[in-house]
Structures are given as structure tokens and as C-alpha cells.
Amino acid sequence: MAIENQINKTTLPRDEISLRDLVLKVRTLIFYLWSKWLIIGIISLIGGTIGFFYAKSKPQLFIASTTFVLEDEKSGKNLGNLACLASMAGVDIGSGGGIFQSDNIFQLYKSRTMLTKTLLTMVEIDGKKELLVDRYISFNQLRTNWAQKPELLQLKFSENDVKDTVSKVKNTRLRDSILGVIVTNINNNNLIVDKVDKNLNAIQVDIKAADENFAKCFNDELVKNVNEFYISTKTQKTLQNVKILQHKADSVKAVMHGAIYAAVAINDATPNLNPTRQVQRVAPVQRAQFSAETNRAILTEMVKNLELTKMSLLKETPLIQVIDEPIYPLPVKAVSKKIYLILGIIGGAFFSILVLTINILYKKIISGE
Asked: Which residues pair with 320 in a beta bridge?
């Protein structure tokens, strides 16, 4: 109480304060807080204890990481040409490779479609086949939380999405909603996709999970699904052109072969033809030969275009090279109990000092001094 009275006495008129009085007030406040060291110490220990047990309650996380680079010959070539032209003009546009110039790859990894497809993938863990979504539900003990909801306990997932059966519309809606929640949780808590270095075309995909097998299997399947989707999408148009040209080339070749066989068949059908009746042989044979020659010329051009399109397909197909992939045992990220203990002590000390300071200021304001 003596210290509190001293704080109240070291005042000037309400609207005036000197530097000396300010220093005195601060010094007196420090003495006051020092006199309350026992309270501050107890609250600090309580905060440290809370921080320690909080860190202890957090499960350790296994981290599965895959690092890969993608080489896109077509994009790289075009960018290289542009860079050369720009350098001639005195402009530096930098360098890079295709998809890594945008955030498309990151959004693709975080997309609901890719994550749902990965969750519904069947994998073999410890000799037992199960869906990754069932594994996720198991180690997160979600079915325990669903104990009061029978419709959730009876929910089954499958690799095949059955959505055309009227009797299963309700289950389909429920299943999709659960998958949506799991996808959101994975995006927020388990999945990290980023460049290894902003100057490099290498991407790292990390999956953090309390279950080691889930982390590795989910990482492997997600990288596989996304990369396959990217390659198929990038080459889809050219691949369709290859199929169309191949079908037309096969059709022309079949017609040409048919015309050749028709000409020979006509000769075989008229072995002892009357010289005065040559029209029965010459006209059909020449017509078949003309058809064969015409289709041969068409086939030559089509084969040339087909080969050019195949070369274009090879150039457009990106090369994805995995640098590092997750292997057992996975690295473990555990919450540091020591750090949380120190943070708890600091937080407790700060809180107690703040409360004591507010308390003495409140008393001063109430007293009107």
C-alpha cells in the first residue's frame, strides 16, 4: 500500500507532467511490480505448465516429401527464342519453364478433384488393401466422433462413384459432404506445395500426418495423379489429332489395298478373254489402278502429316523428373516441449504484469488523482 500511495503522490496538475515525474512514476511502478514477484512467478509457472502439457498433447507428425522438376521442351524453346529477341532489344525477361511461371500447379495439387481422387485410391498397407480415405478416418478417430450419428457410421466409400442410383442419392450427398470436409482439412493442415527456390524450377510437395503410412502413400498417389493429369491435359489435343490421322491413314491404306486386289482379281476372272472384248478387262483394271495410285498419293501425304504430328506430340509431352521421393522411415516433426514451456512462462509473466499494471492504474483513476 505504501508503494501505491507513493505512485498517487508523485503527480502534478491533471494536464501537466514533467519528464522527472514520468521517470518517477515508471520507477515506482517497477518497484511495485517487483514487490509482487511471488504472484508474477506463480502465474508464470502456471503458464509454463499449460504450455508444456499443450505441447505434450500434440501428436508427432510424419512428413512425406516429393521434389520434382518438369522440362517442357516446347515452352522452353519458345521462351528461349523470346529471351533472345528481348536481349537484342536490351530487355531481360528472365528464364523459366512452362507451368512453373504461374500458380496453376499449386492450385492443381490443392484442387478438390485431385485430392478426392487420391483419397478414393486403393493402396496396400501392411499387406492389407484399403482406401486412403478410410485410413484417414481411422487414424483421426472420426468414427468415434460419429458415434451418435448412425448414418455416418454406416457410410462406406468406394473407388467407383455410384451417383446414378436414386436410392443412393442421400448417401451420395452425405459421402460427398464428408469428402469435402476431409479435403478442406487436408488443404489447411496436411498439404504444403511450394517451390524449393524461387530461382529454380523444382517443386516440393509435403504431406504431414500422424500416420506414417498414410503420409507416404497419399504423397505418392497425389503426385502421380496430378502429374498424369497435367501430361494428359497438355497433350490431349495433339493426341486426338494423331488418332484421327492414324484412323484416316488406315482407311486410305485399306482402300488402296482393295483397289490393288481388285485389279488382280479382274485379270484372274478373265484368263481367256476375247481380244475383241478388251473392255471387260482394261476398263476395270485401269479404274482399279487409278484408284490405287490416287490413294497411294493421298496415303503418302497423310503418313507424312502423321509423322509430323507424332513428332509434335513428343515435343509437347513434358518430362517430369522426380528428384527425391519419400522413403521409410519418414522424418518426424514433433512439437518442442521446451519451447512451449518457455513461451508459457513468458506469456504468464506478461499477463500477470499487465493485470497488475491495469489494477494500479484503475485504482488511481477511481481515486481521482
From this structure: 70
Q: Which three cell numbers stand for residue 264?
A: 488382280
Q: What is the pLDDT of residue 317?
A: 66
Residue 242 has pLDDT above 80, yes or no: no
Q: Which three cell numbers stand for residue 58?
A: 500434440
Three-state secondary structure readout of the chain: CHHHHHHHHCCCCCCCCCHHHHHHHHHHHHHHHHHCHHHHHHHHHHHHHHHHHHHHHCCCEEEEEEEEEEECHHHHHHHHHHHHHHHHCCCCCCCCCHHHHCCHHHHHHCCHHHHHHHHCCEEEECCEEEEHHHHHHHHCCHHHHCCCCHHHHCCCCCCCCCCCCHHHHHHHHHHHHHHHHHHHHHHHHHEEEEECCCCCCEEEEEEEECCHHHHHHHHHHHHHHHHHHHHHHHCHHHHHHHHHHHHHHHHHHHHHHHHHHHHHHHHHHCCCCCHHHCHHHHHHHHHHHHHHHHHHHHHHHHHHHHHHHHHHHHHHCCEEEEEECCCCCCCEECCCHHHHHHHHHHHHHHHHHHHHHHHHHHHHHHHCC
Say how far apart CA 1 and CA 7 lie, in whole Å. 10
pLDDT in tens, 245-301: 788 878 877 877 777 776 666 665 555 554 555 444 555 666 767 677 787 788 788
